Structure to design on (290 residues):
């Protein structure tokens, strides 16, 4: 599989006793505060390959996990194995096993739906947040862009992971980059998690996890540590999604929120240098701690 940064693995135990391995990148000085980069659907930590060199050079410890069902992490074979709450539990167990603290979180897509739940569960572990192209929905509806994506994801005969990522960027990915996104999924049987994710987004009152996300919002509405939004201007799925974070999270008030011009849904592919610099400058301007 491409992407040669040193692999690390942490085993978590599912509620039914099944051990599951979570792969993650962990680069940079161990005594530095961690920058936690969380990916979404249907990508993996490869999405952050261009973030690692500038952030570690700047002195940060960079950690990027693969969600269960993605990348080099384990992939349960049944779609029913994947629920929103299970994903949150798996990543909560991973986070506490590594005992990460003083975290700067950068999250996008499902990296936000799960990552922000981690913040709500463990607010004392997080020092600041950078939120991009994501949301924390509570059953109040969805965008036309998301509805189109949901229909496509459930009806396309073969789930074209690399092509999906390429379709969510403004620049054209190379054939090697597309192949790298396809690599974790040798055939359709490995894609049950990727297939299931769109159906789990709680966009209606009947969806599971609406209550849990509402509870998470009550914590975020008291989170007064620095919060920055960096949504892109060319993402039909999350356009305008930054407003709710700016309005409802105290730590977002007065921050230099930005729009990433020329960025698609996967803005990490379209503007990696700008985003890496943004993360570094935000840490420094809000009081980096060792």
């Amino acid at each position: 599989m491409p992407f040669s940064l040193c692999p690390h693995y942490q085993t978590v135990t599912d509620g039914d006793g099944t051990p599951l391995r979570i792969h993650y990148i962990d680069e940079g000085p161990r005594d530095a505060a961690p920058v936690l980069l969380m990916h979404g659907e249907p990508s993996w930590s490869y999405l952050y390959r261009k973030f690692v060199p500038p952030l570690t050079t700047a002195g940060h410890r960079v950690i990027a996990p693969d969600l269960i069902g993605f990348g080099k992490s384990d992939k349960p074979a049944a779609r029913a194995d994947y629920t929103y709450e299970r994903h949150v539990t798996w990543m909560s167990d991973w986070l506490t096993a590594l005992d990460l603290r003083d975290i700067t979180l950068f999250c996008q897509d499902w990296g936000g739906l799960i990552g922000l739940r981690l913040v709500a569960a463990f607010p004392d572990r997080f020092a600041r947040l950078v939120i991009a192209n994501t949301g924390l929905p509570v059953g109040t509806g969805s965008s036309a862009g998301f509805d189109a994506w949901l229909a496509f994801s459930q009806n396309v005969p073969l789930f074209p992971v690399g092509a999906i990522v390429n379709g969510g960027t403004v620049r054209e990915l190379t054939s090697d980059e597309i192949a790298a996104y396809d690599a974790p999924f040798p055939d359709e049987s490995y894609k049950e998690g990727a297939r299931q994710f769109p159906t789990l987004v709680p966009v209606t009152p009947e969806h599971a996890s609406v209550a849990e996300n509402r509870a998470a919002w009550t914590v975020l509405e008291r989170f007064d540590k620095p919060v920055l939004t960096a949504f892109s201007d060319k993402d039909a799925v999350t356009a305008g999604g930054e407003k709710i974070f700016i309005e409802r999270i105290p730590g977002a008030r007065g921050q230099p929120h930005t729009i990433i011009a020329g960025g698609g849904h996967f803005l990490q592919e379209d503007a990696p240098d700008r985003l890496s610099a943004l993360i570094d400058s935000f840490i420094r301007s809000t009081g980096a701690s060792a």
Residues 84-98 form the longest helix (15 residues). The first strand starts at residue 7 and ends at 13.
